[in-house]
Design a protein that fits this description.
CATH architecture of the largest domain in chain B: Orthogonal Bundle
Distance between the termini of chain B: 16 Å
CATH class of the largest domain in chain B: Mainly Alpha
Helix content of chain B: over 70%
Structural class of chain A: alpha+beta
CATH topology of the largest domain in chain B: Rna Polymerase Sigma Factor, Chain: A
Order of helices and strands of chain B: HHHHHHHHH
CATH architecture of the domain at 169-263 in chain A: Sandwich
Strand content of chain A: 15-25%
Largest sheet of chain A: 4 strands, antiparallel
Strand content of chain B: under 5%
Number of strands of chain B: 0
Order of helices and strands of chain A: HHHHHHEEEEEEEE
CATH topology of the domain at 169-263 in chain A: Immunoglobulin-like
Oligomer: heterodimer
């Protein structure tokens, strides 16, 4: 692998990453690359600034009728939601039945008021009903997409956040870095040698005060030698991590000289 | 510091007045991004509702920095969700959570306005501007851009990188770290 060429290729991906154009897998690779390359990180931050600014070009006047209609819909929902929230809070706090009845009445009145406001809005804006239905459909679609992507997104964003946070501790190794934040630990490696056929990389952890390494997960980097791997272990209990090449399926103890051993201190 | 930052502090305290002020200040931007990405005023309107309701119900999601940059990313990612649900399936996501701290995007966005950004974009060669705008507002990956524009993938990458660098320079010192 030609390091200079590979680095240049990664630098081109940095711009795409800054602009938000990379599929998730490639984005994770770039995140790993950035975590281990100061110059690339500086370029990313500068380009991200330009990318952020692009959104501003879409800021254009909205016609006043649409603007007012959107605002009215929004505030009606906010107020109705708040009235409902307050009622729930009251139910949780007060055991007094009479008080509850009064609170219920107040809530009903608030909701009725909100409804009346909505009805007035409907009367004033003939398109609102149609917009509301469309909004419900859209919300359902978004919720569905959200649900499917939520778990993955949470993990990805947590990982990417951890990789970049100045609050993370970075332990350099020749192939990249071991990154620790809170109780999470990651291998962010970008220079892993290609694996022989039938072999995988295996992570190892050494518990604090322990003398025997524990087997962790196995993984295969991409063809450019890049891998970002969250280790399934509580980082606060780990004294050191290591990596070695093992037979496919992993080993119970290392069978080759470790690629690296890195104390986390 | 853009006014959104302070308004968000009040919104966390459930100040409807602050929320209204936030809407007044930023709905054009949110609606504009939605319109550019979804291509339909009705859907852009619905997207605007979704984004602002999310802000009201989960204001803690904004963790500092430039509110303009943050709300733009949130809006873009929401619009991408909509495009996905239409089965257009753009795969790219804006790295919305990065960086979590530092004053970079605050520095950048302060002093910039829509016209200045549009002028800077207009200065780019058409082939660079076209790819950047199609990618950003069209929610396409670089591979999709290459296919759509029948441009070699390497050329797409180079043009976007060059264009983004030129844009940064054109926007001046505000964009320099």
């Amino acid at each position: 692998m030609n390091d200079a060429l590979d680095r240049e290729a990664m630098m081109e991906l940095v711009a795409l990453y800054a602009l938000g154009l990379l599929p998730r897998e490639e984005a994770a690779l770039v995140a790993a690359f950035l975590a281990g390359d100061d110059e690339a990180r500086a370029e990313y931050l500068a380009l991200r600034a330009g990318a952020d600014a692009i959104a501003l070009s879409a800021d254009e006047p909205v016609d006043s009728a649409r603007s007012a209609r959107m605002k009215e819909r929004l505030l009606a929902r906010v107020r109705a939601g708040d009235a409902s929230d307050r009622a729930v809070a009251r139910r949780r706090i007060g055991p007094n039945a009479g008080w509850l009845w009064a609170a219920g009445l107040a809530t009903a009145a608030s909701l009725l008021l909100a409804t009346i406001t909505s009805v007035q809005t409907l009367t004033m804006q003939g398109q609102l009903a149609q917009a509301g239905r469309r909004n419900a459909t859209l919300s359902a679609q978004v919720a569905q997409a959200d649900k499917a992507a939520q778990a993955d997104d949470r993990e990805d964003r947590q990982m990417i956040s951890d990789l970049f946070s100045p609050g993370s501790r970075r332990y350099e190794v020749a192939e990249g870095a071991v990154i620790v934040r809170g109780n999470r630990v990651y291998f962010a490696l970008s220079k892993l040698p290609a694996l022989p056929k039938g072999k995988v990389y295996q992570a190892w952890t050494l518990p604090k005060g322990g003398k025997t390494v524990q087997p962790s997960l196995t993984f295969t980097p991409n063809r450019d030698g890049v891998a970002v791997v969250p280790l399934p272990v509580d980082a606060t209990k780990v004294g050191a991590v290591a990596l070695s090449v093992e037979p496919d399926g992993g080993s119970k103890l290392p069978t080759t000289t470790p690629t690296f051993v890195r104390p986390l201190s | 510091m853009d006014p959104g930052f302070r308004l968000m502090e009040r919104i966390r305290a459930r100040d409807v007045g602050a929320f209204e002020a936030l809407y007044d200040a930023y709905h054009r931007l949110v609606f504009g991004i939605g319109l550019r990405m979804l291509g339909d005023p009705g859907m852009a309107e619905d997207l605007t509702q979704t984004v602002f309701l999310k802000i009201w119900t989960a204001p803690e999601a904004f963790r500092g920095g430039s509110f303009v940059a943050w709300v733009s990313r949130v809006t873009r990612n929401r619009a991408l969700d909509v495009l996905r649900s239409r089965a257009v399936r753009p795969e790219a996501d804006f790295p919305a959570d990065l960086p979590l701290d530092g004053a970079l995007d605050e520095d950048v966005m302060a002093g910039l306005d829509a016209q200045r950004v549009r002028d800077a974009l207009a200065m780019l060669p058409a082939e660079q501007r076209g790819l950047i705008e199609l990618g950003f507002f069209g929610g396409m990956t670089h591979q999709e851009l290459a296919r759509r524009t029948e441009t070699p993938l390497g050329t797409v990458k180079t043009r976007i990188r060059t264009g983004l660098r030129t844009l940064r320079e054109a926007l001046g010192e505000g964009v320099s770290r």
